[in-house]
Design a protein that fits this description.
- It is a single chain.
- The chain is mainly alpha-helical and 538 residues long.
- 67% of the residues lie in helices and 2% in strands.
- The chain contains 20 helices and 4 strands.
- Strands 1-2 form a two-stranded antiparallel ribbon.
- β3 and β4 form a beta hairpin.
- The longest helix is centred in the N-terminal third of the chain and has 32 residues.
- The chain is globular.
């Protein structure tokens, strides 16, 4: 219990450092510190118990898991230190205790230790460990832990790159940061581009922002930061859950989830305030619902959410549904019911948020997308393939563009005139070739085991990738902007293909080393974003 209490102190410290901006009274800090320390401490206590059993029974798995969590800890700490080097962009006081808050924090933490002892005894008496809730929480604890590391990272940079000081769109990878910050977190919710491709995104996301803001004394901007980071961490957790259920190997699931969260796509869109991380989260939820064979109503609800955030992403849910359900009547029900729901939901969206955007069923509303469309060509096709296969995982050295806006743009791809990022360092080139080798290995294993494996999810992922390739053959200024829409399919397809190697020690080491190198490489992209932005922020 004492090590659990001690190990949870840093988490409680930074949690209270953030919440202390809103609850600053002496009593409030004591209560939050005590409650947070009890929750975090009991969680760590249980994880230490599981680690002890793992050490006794599977020492190799224990060693690799410990090395993975150590690498993630170093990564989060180093990235916090990196952010702290840019005081114009990041104020560490936002996440640390102020001088007058240290004493009540210490009192709260002191109260927490005997409270933890009492809680363990209380739960044992009530046989809480035999309840369904406890067993579920115990089952997902490793996935929650890996997601928590990425949440900490995503939240740090969500609080930096979504600030109002970034007062124009298109700074990073053609994202509409200003637009969505205003639409999600301010009364000015109108889409000034007047596009209909997000039919009822406000109806889905603004209430979640408002709910979080309720606990943050009405600070909707901070709530939007938190929600974005949470959506990114949720994607990591769902990747872990999907692999754990399909492969049945806990260590392998942790490695794949870490690879997923460290990919260039999710390490960026896990914190940039846009719609793409919410699309990815909706799609990942949909896949898990299909995996667990949940009722049609849950799939319809999730499919409608995906349509509401960006209507083209409904196609991805339909592809997955068709390949996995393989029931014509179910296909028709799914399509008809979702189709019947989205029109009234779009009407409701514009009733609650008047004149927020045009209706998607008005054909003229798609004229606004004309500037994002380009003639298909062989060079563009090759660029899409490169962005999808390589840049979405291993970040290249980005393009730095000085044009139009009072910020240097950091992009991966520019459609017109066409320019594409490259790997300029030896480490980046080597890592890209290693990743290419892992892709080829996965393709070989997929073809080798084509007749043996469950022929549902893998073909669905392939068709989803083809759909995205064909869509962006014509659409998109910076193709990397859409990478969260396909990276999950790449990683999960490979996770299924690599399953026969999941328990091979040499392959586990390869994945672990690759993840460490990937974190180091992709952090360079964030450093570039920090250093270029700092030039324009006073």
């Amino acid at each position: 219990m004492l090590p659990a209490w001690a190990l949870s102190l840093p988490v409680a410290y930074f949690t209270l450092g953030y919440l202390g901006n809103y609850y600053s009274s002496f009593t409030a800090i004591i209560l939050i510190a005590a409650l947070g320390q009890v929750v975090f401490g009991l969680s760590v206590y249980r994880l230490l118990g599981k680690a002890e059993k793992l050490y006794a029974n599977h020492r190799w798995d224990f060693s690799l898991a410990l090395a993975l969590f150590a690498a993630l800890t170093v990564f989060v700490v180093k990235m916090f230190e990196t952010a702290n080097r840019f005081p114009r962009l990041f104020d560490a006081k936002y996440m640390t205790l102020e001088a007058g808050q240290t004493l009540p924090f210490m009192i709260g933490c002191a109260i927490a230790f005997p409270s933890m002892l009492w809680a363990v005894g209380f739960f044992k008496q009530r046989k809480f460990s035999q309840s369904r809730l406890y067993q579920f929480l115990d089952e997902i604890s490793a996935g929650v832990l890996i997601a928590a590391f990425f949440f900490a990272f995503y939240f740090i940079f969500a609080s930096i790159f979504n600030q109002p000081v970034f007062d124009v769109d298109d700074i990073f990878f053609d994202t509409d940061g200003l637009l969505w910050r205003r639409r999600f977190a301010t009364p000015d919710f109108q889409d000034y581009y007047w596009r209909s491709v997000h039919p009822f995104a406000l109806l889905i996301i603004r209430p979640l922002v408002a709910l979080l803001a309720f606990f943050l004394k009405g600070d909707k901007l901070a709530a939007a930061f938190t929600l974005t980071a949470f959506a990114g961490a949720l994607c990591v957790f769902l990747a872990w859950y999907f692999v754990k259920q399909t492969a049945g190997n806990s260590l392998y699931a942790l490695l794949i989830a870490s690879l997923f969260g460290a990919s260039a796509a999710y390490i960026i869109f896990g914190f940039l305030l846009e719609t793409y991380i919410f699309l990815a989260a909706a799609m990942m939820i949909f896949l898990v619902l299909l995996l667990k064979d949940k009722p049609l109503v849950a799939l319809i609800f999730t499919g409608a959410l995906s349509f509401g955030i960006t209507l083209t992403n409904f196609v991805q849910t339909a592809i997955a549904f068709i390949f996995i359900k393989r029931d014509f009547k179910q296909w028709v029900k799914y399509g008809v019911i979702v189709g019947a729901l989205v029109v009234p939901l779009a009407l409701l969206n514009n009733f609650i948020y008047p004149k927020s955007q045009p209706y998607f069923f008005d054909p003229s509303s798609f004229n606004a997308e004309a500037e994002n469309t380009f003639a298909p060509s062989v060079p563009r096709a090759l660029a899409i393939a490169r962005v999808m296969a390589l840049h979405s995982i291993v970040a290249p050295d980005p393009l730095i563009l000085d044009e139009e806006i009072p910020f240097l743009k950091v992009w991966i791809f520019k459609a017109e005139p066409m320019r594409l990022s490259e790997y300029k360092t030896w480490s980046g080139k080597i890592l890209a070739f290693v990743w290419l080798g892992l892709i080829l290995l996965g393709e070989f294993l997929f073809l080798k085991n084509l007749k043996k494996q469950d022929p549902r999810f893998s073909p669905a992922f392939i068709v989803i990738l083809i759909f995205n390739f064909l869509l962006h053959l014509k659409y998109g200024k910076d193709l990397f902007l859409y990478s969260a829409n396909w990276t999950y399919a790449i990683v999960l397809f490979l996770a299924l293909a690599w399953r026969e190697l999941a328990e091979r020690k040499w392959f586990q080491i390869v994945l672990l080393v690759f993840i460490g190198a990937l974190l180091a490489n992709n952090s360079r992209l964030i450093l570039t974003m920090l250093s270029t932005s700092a030039l324009h922020v006073k």
